[in-house]
Amino acid sequence: MRTAARSLLCLPALLVLLSVLGCAPAPLYKATAQATAATPFQVAQAPERYAGGDVIWGGRIVQVSNFSDHSEVELLAYPLDGSQRPKANDSGNGRFIAVLPGYVEPLDYPAGALMTISGKLNGSRAGKVGAADYVFPLVRVAQSHVWTADEMNKGRNNIHFGVGVGVGIH
User: Fold this and answer.
1) What residues does each domain of the chain span?
2) Residue 40, beta-bridge partner list
3) Would you call 76 helix, strand, or coil by DSSP?
4) For residue 106, how many other CB atoms are within 10 A of its CB?
5) Which of 1, 99, 103, 112 is least surrounded by CB atoms within 10 angstroms?
6) Structurally, what CATH architecture does the domain formed by 40-153 represent?
7) CB–CB of 72/65 below 8 Å?
């Protein structure tokens, strides 16, 4: 009888542990030996120091600009979680411009969407954020991924504990 009671008491703790571990997606891109751990803000301070380095960065799309032979996606950078999803609730780490070959459809890269890229640092460009001068690191993109809401929520704990009555709409 005691063993059954103990097992019954341990069951909720086991369920919570399993839900916390969850099934978070695996990282999208494999870091290379030349990968830099610097943030876009740090690279903007000394672009020559990081020239040619590989990066895996992500953030929130600010805008898309298309040119005759390439497209540029400006992003506000955020730290990445273990699955390389941008942690948009964190503070920003500067801005950068993802340079993609050819034309990209702006509707596929909507302002406000979260995106992760892998690529090589390819210099910098002076520009403006509002009226402020800004230096944007340029990343020649090898791979990119725009996250859906479902992908952002995968592996996240949806169990909430509290006292009282509540209604949750998802």
Assistant:
1) 40-153
2) none
3) strand
4) 15
5) 1
6) Beta Barrel (2.40)
7) yes
